[in-house]
Fold this protein.
Amino acid sequence: MSGDVPANRPPLSLHVPEPRFRPGDAVDYAHVEVPPAGSARRPEPGDAAASFHELAFGLVRVLDEENRAVGPWAPRLSPDVLRQMLRNMALVRAFDERMFRAQRQGKTSFYMKSTGEEAVSVAAAMAMQRDDMCFPSYRQQGILITRDYSLVEMMNQIYSNRGDKLQGKQLPIMYSAKDYGFFSISGNLATQYPQAVGWAMASAAKGDSRIAATWCGEGSTAEGDFHSALTFATVYRAPVIFNVVNNQWAISSFSGFAGAEATTFAARAVGYGIAGLRIDGNDALAVYAATEWAAERARTNAGPTLIEHFTYRAEGHSTSDDPTAYRSADEATGWPLGDPIRRLRDHLIAIGEWDLERHAAQDLELAEQVKRAQKEAEANGILGHGLHQPLDTLFDGVFEEMPWHLREQQAQMLAEEEASGRPWARK
Amino acid sequence: MTDEMIETAAPAGGETSRMNMIQAINSALDVMMGRDDDVLVMGEDVGYFGGVFRATAGLQQKYGKTRVFDTPITEIGIIGVAIGMGAYGLRPVPEIQFADYIYPALDQLVSEAARLRYRSAGEFTAPITVRSPYGGGIFGGQTHSQSPEGIFTHVSGIKTVIPSTPYDAKGLLIAAIEDNDPVLFLEPKRIYNGPFDGNWDRPAKNWSAHPGGAVPAGYYRIELGKAATVREGGDLTILAYGTMVHVVQAVVEEAGVDAEILDLRTLVPLDIEAIEVSVKKTGRCMIVHEATRTGGFGAELSALVTERCFHHLEAPVERVTGFDTPYPHSLEWAYFPGPVRIGQALKKIMKD
């Protein structure tokens, strides 16, 4: 069906976004505007959001091309803190490498790497207080690692093994760690956004001092939950930090399908009257500085901040994804903002606080640490070798108290196991 | 049908070839887009990439970006926009990447698509077909495994269709696209690549040896609302759909029970006549679905059979379902209504 087009009115046409590069294309990032490090101004954290709208369209950068930390956003961290930041990021990468390989070896069903995005979670977690509450998406394992969560616990969850405190109930990497200020990961997109606002509102209502932070990808900003969250946050000036990790790709859909052709994601804040910062997400110091600023804004009841972390998803969406089918392999290697670990490493070297030998030694040490943790976790079993939880845990936690119908079904299940002659869960 | 008729009747849909369910669905979309310029496909990752399960592979290249396009990640947006396109006069086939992600779209489906014809007295309709992979058995955890059909069968105004073979998938999808009412087309992803007998630790089969894997290349329809008798028998009637049709068949063969197995294919509107005829003949009825038990579609089937066939029943209606828990990750096979659960129910109903 098509409507009749009167001669005096031009026919319409439908715009469907298309990424610049597809497999095999040479990549040219000339269209990506990279302002000089240090050029963005730093307003006071309590300033009115409307007075610094340009920061939602620019790009806050701290590390310059000579690996110096420059400008008003430079957080002036001690070498010890910088080295810790570097170590945390390198540990995340080592962990990802090892667990990706474990999935490929058939030891578990699924894994998601955060390669290239380590700064987004590590530096942010370091800029917050240890008891501030995080509502992450599925790619912020760096928060747990920064907060010294046990690698063995993470792996137990990935393997759904006997040691998994989530009892094998969740898909690998959907961690939950309340004592570490880390909310249970859902897997559904952006659902954590309004929940973070609710937590922050509760904290404010109770006169608490803790704030909340949440993360989602740029693709997820299309979900209704994102917009509901921003509305509540501005209405109640909730003490919350919204992080949009713009890693350019949502599985095979480039950021244009979330609106990036028309504006920035930080600019979403403008319409809601929320502070918006667009930052270089591969610059750990910019991530730290922006988070520290937003945390102070939240803690002084000046309201929420939305931070767009401009970064790049260097690997596939998950172990189920093959990015070579839809994007140019040159995209990752040519990314104009480099690699977050390498950039922080080079900064530490430039200020005389690190060298390549120590870095290589640290990489080896971290790989060993991850390997040791893996061995320990695998002693609790791996998913590939069958089911590890006692069968009756299947019914734990549906309700606080088990109603009659679940008790009946639980008994039925145990009878089935008996009848099967295959005691699945007793390995 | 006589031998002579088989020889002379041109088969609907032309030459057949071996397809898996993904290929059959792709073929249905291709056929319908070729026949009708108003059919369009939209959803997350369905365009250039061709869908995370490849169901829309090649369609954008063939029909262009204004008829096959990626969408923002907003399920309520996808369905709402499809309704608007339907109101214009198009026939959109939106995809929700996993049925587990359909809930943000509930308002548009339940309050809008399902009621548009009714509330406008037919002035506007929503001739959309929402495709969505559903069901477990792939270690997908609670967000890639659910069977939400019972939520939608409870809503007046939406048709719910679930195929169990590549042949049915294509014929039913074509009928769904041609239907002028909104249709939820749930695809059992565990059997995309082959039938599944419920034994997760045995090697996977593909569709090449299954009669339902022979799929005509061209156009054919399987009318909505018609069940298929996949096995005739006299001892009892088993009602199933999707993946469970194959699990039930395998259990029945192994148990040596003379069961009549009906593949419902369409849950709403339901082929009540086929159910009644069969249950009145066998005197026993078992219902098998993977979805949770309480308030599931099995409860509706059980009520209907009891209301309509009570005096013919020799045993209480038996339901075999998933348990009333979220879909677990590692204990997936303890949750799944597999051969043991079905076998035990079979013994019970035959003893009663």
In short: The mean pLDDT of chain A is 95. The two ends of chain A are 61 Å apart (CA to CA).
